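Researcher: Structure for this, please.
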Amino acid sequence: INMGLVIALGLFVLVTGSTVFLLDLLPSTVYNLAENLLAMFQVSASEGKVEEEFLTSWTTLLWAWWISWSPFVGMFIAKISRGRTIREFATVVMLVPSAISIAWFVIFGGTSIRMNLDGLGLEIEESGENVMFDIMDNLPFTGVTSIVVLIAVVIFFVTAADSATVVMGSMSQSGRAFPSKPVTIIWGAALGLIAIFLLLAGGRNALSGLQSIMVSCSVPFALIIIGMMVSWWKDLSN
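Model: Predicted structure, token format:
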């Protein structure tokens, strides 16, 4: 359902927005990414204030965020991919989501850029959640599309929390493939309560605090992932 909603939203914005501009932007974006990838890896926070702000609020934060989520995402994807070949697994998990993500960011990022160039002046407020709805406000059928966006966001949160509770239940029962329902419910309730407490304590700045915690927790797990890579290479060598 969620993928259907996301694809429908992307196609809607592509068709009703600046279609030609976005179609031109897609190949040029992919080309620029490939051309500048190595140069972007060389950017350091010590180079200046602009570089420091960009790295800490975007690239480094996202890398750390995904490292901290990797136990949940990795186990969940492995669980639903049982019986697939390594080639199938790598293709679907790495290439397909990357292609969808690039298309999504080009369509919505490009639309917001085009709207700013046209003088509509999209303003980023606080964490920036408003921009998505501001884009929809400047396109047809605002009432319908805003509801679709909200439904998609809710399903994304629910499915992420659901998969996380199943994985935590499995971890806490020595890797049991199908964790017992009481344990899963306890983890789900704990996850929900922690989220509520963070929101009540931090208010509108709760997300920033959560991001800082996630980044800190990801550092030791980065070392574990390196060990996993070495182990996987040795296993494939056999």
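Researcher: Any notable elements?
Model: The chain has a mean pLDDT of 85. The helical segments are 2-16, 19-41, 49-80, 86-117, 130-137, 142-171, 181-202, 206-237.
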